Amino acid sequence: MKNNYSVGVDLGGTKIKIGLVNSSGRIINKISIDTFAKEGPDKVVSQIKKGIHTLLDTNKKTIQGIGIGSPGTVSLKKGTVENPPNLPGWDRVHLGRIITKEFGLPTFVENDANAAAIGELIYGAGKTLNSFLMVTLGTGVGGGIIYNKKLFRGENGGAGEIGHITIDHHGPKCKCGSRGCLETYLGNNYLTKNVIEQLKKNKSSLIYDMLNGDLKKLNPRIIHEASLEGDKFAIGVINNVGTTLGHGMASIVNVFDISTVVIGGGVAGFGKPLFAAVKKSIQARVLTPLRPRIKVRQAKLKNNAGIKGASSLVLYD
Amino acid sequence: MKNNYSVGVDLGGTKIKIGLVNSSGRIINKISIDTFAKEGPDKVVSQIKKGIHTLLDTNKKTIQGIGIGSPGTVSLKKGTVENPPNLPGWDRVHLGRIITKEFGLPTFVENDANAAAIGELIYGAGKTLNSFLMVTLGTGVGGGIIYNKKLFRGENGGAGEIGHITIDHHGPKCKCGSRGCLETYLGNNYLTKNVIEQLKKNKSSLIYDMLNGDLKKLNPRIIHEASLEGDKFAIGVINNVGTTLGHGMASIVNVFDISTVVIGGGVAGFGKPLFAAVKKSIQARVLTPLRPRIKVRQAKLKNNAGIKGASSLVLYD
Questions:
Q1: Chain B closest CA to A72's CA: distance in Å?
Q2: Is B292's pLDDT higher than 90?
Q3: In the sheet where A80-82 sits, what is the strand order?
Q4: Could A176 and B256 be called an inter-chain contact, meaning their C-beta atoms sit closer than 8 Å?
Q5: Closest among A243, A268, A21 to A134, alpha carbons compared
Q6: What is the pLDDT of residues A20-63, one digit of tens each?
Q7: Residue A86 and which of A235, A267, B178, B200 are 20 to 30 A apart at CA?
Q8: How far is B214 from chain A (nearest CA, A)?
């Protein structure tokens, strides 16, 4: 197994990141190229091919297979990608078949949030777990569900949309069309906007000094650092995020009876105080028998989680 | 198969209902006896035995097995029931083993809400479905999830607690300890109380006449009948219930990617207008690709659904 390598392709709206990954999830080499999404699926597919060729030409390794994490709904059997957001013109693309044909290698395509969950299962925080709820706090709030060591895909591979559970049915409008989705509170754009607004009323916060007043530079790690210095405002922000996430996750824990939550993505940069707040919030809300079983863990795949998650598809069956 | 019979035991806090059921889910004979829950598990178990003996003595049929639908958390492997609400003193009872020993028949124990979902799968609205979300609107709001023809049990058999997903995290306190659970809006007690309060302000509603002013006699069927007569108040109540249920179900549909909802229990007596309102509400909230796929169906197991669901456990594997 030690000499087995796989290729992971993280297909994004702006960049395609491609990495050569060993069987323990370490990236040996990687490249990043433009997606050219606006030029349509043919161009994007040719960029993917070009990128993989470049990577393989410079690394003469025996490759076990190629994994692709893609936005949108993915049919596992057919290897097709349907209507991915940020990739215009993709009505339905047989991405798996095209890449298999080009490289003569088994190719596995999966939704990127699902690939992230499989990545944690194969290489990361889920290695020793049978079942967990993976939530990724980034620009949006994504998710993937592992049940008995398998990805729970639902009827059409769309399961795990944790960002679109409602915590307040009369809450703020979400871009999905619903109201009060977890994403409207915790998606990076909303969250940063909210925190900046509150910061303006809390000018004594350490965060002001740390940013030299340039609030645009705000990010979760700075809030975490300020909280470690005892900054009350920063501690409050982290507690709020954790409590809110917990309110949503409690519903999910109740319906799935899966009691471990793995948190990844940029907002996970809030660190331990976040995980503690999430745990406390879930425990306060979930049905009594579940309370002692609740565990909250940080995702282990941090940088390049997209590449690693995609490459893990090759090792997953 | 036609000559195969099974016994279904619906273990409730007040009554134990036991039926002899044929392989298409028809009850051939049934009895109802007191649970004597307050006298503890030994007494309850002896009541179950007594009831089954009585039923079998009067019906000389070849029995394939015994199914028991029980409140509380059930371990399928061990056939144990843990801390069922309304059954005091049941720390952990090996119900399956005890009944198998007594009758020399395979015995299957399952949580009652899960048994109801399996009942629909084997005999009812789910016969032709691969996957569905079953929700039972009764005193509480229960649920069970069928995925690829199998019950989704979660880590400890507790999955499917649809009544305890939050639709408003700052909403009314639920007896489970959380806030804004679906059950706090739709459980029969809360619902009836709310509707009676509103009725007092809407004395022109037909419902007043239909009840001869005795609001205590209010039930879902009367509200349904009034709505069929065009009573605006009744139509409003049904729409509200359907819309609220839809707000909760949309979250569940998003995370499970299961797009068929089967509704049973007393409140399902609201009939077609309820199912239409639920469907409309889910479609307005769920992620775009799921919208055209949403189906809402009425449960087929109505009277004695508890007995039928329990007996179906024998046919399910």
A1: 10
A2: yes
A3: A73-75, A80-82, A92-93
A4: no
A5: A268
A6: 999 999 999 999 999 999 999 999 999 999 999 999 999 888 99
A7: A267
A8: 34
